[in-house]
């Protein structure tokens, strides 16, 4: 007996601004939101629901014939650190890329920079294929490519990558390259239609640097105060009778 595929028309995961991209590109406008914008309010006042961060990096190919982009990886690290410094739980954040080499670059950067942000280990970093079926409050998507499209042109992979985030979808990529692609030209157009939906990393990094500087200064001050309190409590320690 044959079975007909049934399209699930109502989605309950993504903020409507995020689901609108998939609805436009893959579902011919037939997708219905089962949740409202209020149900998916932002985790931070300064963090856009949907944003494309333009990074002028360069794609490189690794020994495994997979692609990576060091500039995108560095910006992604700084963005994730800023989210954690602002109070978002690391376990609520996911980083997706279409390339295994980029995933490895990101994992190496996160491991190297975890001393100031130990919770960063809880951020899930995966290829899009490994992330299928998963969801996070915040998704950061690293596109990698700057010359050609490759996997980024796959409708199935792109659909999965764009629909994992519940409250925030933050895309890191190269506008000049991706705008030439039919799929990604539409994605960028959706981002441009949102307030602060298209940011240039060279300008945005100044804001992130300031946020991280304040966070580290606050941590250093708190550590200094704890050390001071510990020294004071030691000065007033009186041993019980009989203790030498």
TrEMBL record:
It comes from the Eukaryota. Residues 219-235 have a biased composition (Basic and acidic residues). Residues 3-175 form the DNA2/NAM7 helicase-like C-terminal domain. GO terms for molecular function: 5'-3' DNA helicase activity; ATP binding; hydrolase activity; zinc ion binding. Gene3D superfamilies: P-loop containing nucleotide triphosphate hydrolases. The keyword Zinc-finger applies. The keyword ATP-binding applies. This is 5'-3' DNA helicase ZGRF1. It comes from Ornithorhynchus anatinus (Duckbill platypus). The gene is ZGRF1.
